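Q: Hi! First time doing this. I have a protein sequence and I read that you can turn it into a structure. Is that right? Here it is:
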Amino acid sequence: MNLIERTNRIVYLDVLRGFALCGILFVNMPSFLGERTTSEMGQVDQLLRLLFDLFIQTKFYTLFSVLFGAGFILFIDRLRVKGKSLWIFVRRLTILLAFGLIHLLFWKGDILQTYALSGFFLLLFVKTRPTTKLFVGIALQVYTFFLYLSIYLYARSEGDQSIVEPDGTLQELVASRQVLDYIAHHATIEIPMALTNTLTIFPEILSLFLIGAYLMERFTVRPPTTRTLVVLLTVSLLLSLPALYQIVLIHQGEVPDGLANFFFVWLSGRTLAVTYAAAIALLIRSGRSLNGFQVLGRMALTNYLSHTLVFTVLIFLTGAYGTIPLWQGTVAVIILLVIQVVFSRWYLRRHAQGPVEAVWRAGTYGRRK
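A: Yes, that's right. Below is the predicted 3D structure, encoded as structure tokens:
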């Protein structure tokens, strides 16, 4: 693909990671500010919620998970070349788990601990053939599909209802600026719930890891042609249309944030993620640098954690939780992303990687490089 920099980084992976990071911030923002049911929103916020469900929700954690699997292959290959032990990867995941648990003290939606715990199972596939990874990955995706389909059918038969649950406890803690109690609440309530949720979504996350690992092994040997990318983009976009149409119909009904909507949002995430990945690859091949996404991707962990820091400070400064309109949160997201692009570009001119990435690397190898 001719996507390698002189620093031996794969530009495409950095760009796609940065692009996914932007989408993840849009997805996480309503949770940062306090979830509200769609019925409580104004018309502008309801339109934004529809756009989020159509084009953002579930699409970007899919991309990020596939990228994690691809990164796993790159990391293991580098260990092999250097003759290093696989225990280094175990140490890397353990540090990531620690980051995730600390992150959970401030926000219940952390995905790092899920990635770390699921990532340990990747070690079972270190010596397997690429086709084995693909087969197991697809099998787990099929399992997840039927699981969510059963939930959808249950909602249709028994009656759908909103799955959004506003958190009155956090609203009170933020309104009274009780920061220590806010952290204690997350430590005693949210962390156990998050770990339980990890057990539920583990098969899906591992499946995406394995598919990403397969794609990295497959395309390292034989990168996809431009024609293949165009076909992938076209087919995946067409396959997305039925689910997107259902989302629009559901949003016009009585329960736009229920289980039925969740199923089609999840389903469209499988296909639109492919559309986005193919589109980014084609843009890079056409000569577009997409440097803004690239610098965000090179500092993805630092930028991801700083999202929580910024929005936690914001809600405590305002004392508002569960009341800030979605459109205002969207404006805040855009401003934050612009600032992060500028800061990341400046920082990477002076350092090889982001500050949190440097700590992660030092902990992984036991030394600074």
